[in-house]
Amino acid sequence: MILPLSHNFQVQHDPELRLMRFQWVGGPNSRGLRAGMRYSRDLVEKLHPHFVLVDFAGMPPVEMRDELWMSLHWFPRVSRRPLRGVAVMYPPTQLHNQMAVEAMLWVGRRFMQYQLQVFKSVPAAYDWFTGGDTAAGLRLEAEWEAAKAPLLLSI
């Protein structure tokens, strides 16, 4: 299911697969990023997914102060959740954010008790999460795309 848009994040939650997907839809400005990150953290704590996909498509460059805040306050708390796998997806144009996340992961590596994979496409991440269940991946992607259409019309 697609959760209501909140704090510039679109969120997909599949309770059966224990999977969540997060993507920033707040435009090119990172104002509100911390509120969105707190929202995502709270959802992970409340809904207990085993797998999380963080899709950086559309995300503005993360500012240094936000990177530091995430490293010190957000990441340690999220990483204490009983996650099995986290997938990160960067578009090729997201080198800045990729480097920011890698720095955060290096700082917080002692908290990580889950597998982390970086993907170039969302279907590849879904394939990893579902153990190759193509039908589940297609269903998740169709649900996501159907939710994006009304969102694009409202912008």
Verbal overview:
This protein is 48% helix and 21% strand. The protein is built from five helices and six strands. The protein starts with a strand and ends with a helix.
Compact overview of the structure:
The chain is an alpha/beta fold and 155 residues long. It is built from five helices and six strands. It has helices at 33-47, 64-79, 95-108, 122-130, 134-154; strands at 2-6, 9-14, 19-24, 51-55, 85-89, 115-119.
| Straight-line distance between termini | 21 Å
SSE string: EEEHEHEHEHH
**Hey, roughly how much beta strand do the residues contain?**
15-25%
* Strand elements, count: 6
User: What's the oligomerization state?
Assistant: single chain
Counting helices, strands and paired strands, the structural category is alpha/beta
Sketch the major β-sheet.
6 strands, mixed
Q: How many helices in DSSP terms?
A: 5
Descriptive tags:
155 residues, alpha/beta, Transcription Regulator spoIIAA
Architecture blueprint of SSEs:
Blueprint: E1 2-6, E2 9-14, E3 19-24, H1 33-47, E4 51-55, H2 64-79, E5 85-89, H3 95-108, E6 115-119, H4 122-130, H5 134-154
Parallel strand pairs: 3-4, 4-5, 5-6
Antiparallel strand pairs: 1-2, 2-3
